[in-house]
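Chapter summary example: a protein plus cytidine-5'-monophosphate.
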Amino acid sequence: MSFDLSVFSNKNIILAVTGGIAAYKSAILVRRLKDYGFNVCVVMTKGAQAFITPLTFQALSGNPVHTELLDPEAEAGMGHIELARWADLILVAPASCDTIAKFAAGLADDLLSTLYLATKAPVWVAPAMNQQMWAAKPTQRNLNTLVEDGVHVIMPEAGSQACGDVGLGRMPEPEDLAEQVKNYFHQAQRAIAEKFGLLAGKRVVITAGPTREAIDPVRYISNHSTGKMGFAIAAACYSAGAKVTLLAGPVSLDTPNGVRRINVSSAIKMLDESMHQLEEGCDVFIATAAVADYRVAEVAEHKIKKAGDELNVSLVKNPDIVATIAQQSKRPFMVGFAAETRNVEEYAAGKLVAKKLDMIACNDVSRADIGFASDQNAMTVFFAEQYQMEKRDLEKASKQEIAQQLVEAIHDALHHEIEPI
Ligand code: C5P
């Protein structure tokens, strides 16, 4: 999930447009909010309709535009009280002096001012007006009242104005406003995840992708790992409230939202960085990387020239990253992966013991429909004996869903009471 837009599809925004030339920017704002996946419903004051038509907003938002306080048709469908309850956020952009004054005074003589009083949702205002009107004492006094009442005021920007003046009063660009809304919901979700998520507050380090072992300055040995599973697990751990560091081999994937990514190339570099992360503090270490088993004994300083029919390259064994971390005195909860083409479960159970892991997830990469480059996966998870937990079969599903199930398995093992023998 580079940025999972669908997470906002259950969030409802009322965009209230009031009278001002900046109203044209609100049309683009609807688009940008929709791009992030929000449901947008537009409310317009009379003043706004002098600048732009409701039809424009209806077409862009895909929802009926609300303009009247007592509209029999709207009251039969979504009247002002339902609308006030429906909203997760009311964004007034542009917010005119008049609307700001109405909010400050607590008037309820049109749809928007009534919504303001009737909603429990946060209210944001983005004032846009002539610089003199912005600076006017009543406007500033009203804005102070709004701030005291808990309204979030988005400061206008300085610049040349439609009226020819230069100064404060321009509405920020729609892209900026939409991003602020996105960040607000994202932070709210994050705060909940950090408090109540399955991995709340845990520090998770994940290795992912292949490693690349140089032969000479232009050639290397590597494998077909795409890193998709590791990246999906990183995203799932972050959504579960963890602080996630992803040690990524060379892959062409976007960094999941909120995840700290450190790019590495060789197995040695991946191990160095893993040890460094361990020193920084790590509760769970998840090794999904397809680490090259061998590296070239002596990397040629210059490009190897074509000569003769054969070329012998001597290889030496790479360190086992996950096993090395598992041997450390202050070891995290260790999760390994096993990709096998036969005797899948037997080999995986062997690796669990040999590498001193707490948990291992194994899959059959001989199946074309799962594993490596596929978007789907199916796995069996084994836990170390002391957890006294049954093995778990994760049915074929998207790598995102498998990642979520792995997070649940890690959580369950972490919270498993080990009975005294
Ligand atoms: O031994 P095998 O490569 O099958 O083991 C797979 C598990 O060990 C994976 O979790 C992989 O990320 C990890 N591993 C490692 N360092 C290596 C080889 C494998 O961390 N050199």
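Key point: Residues 1-5 have pLDDT under 50 and may be disordered.
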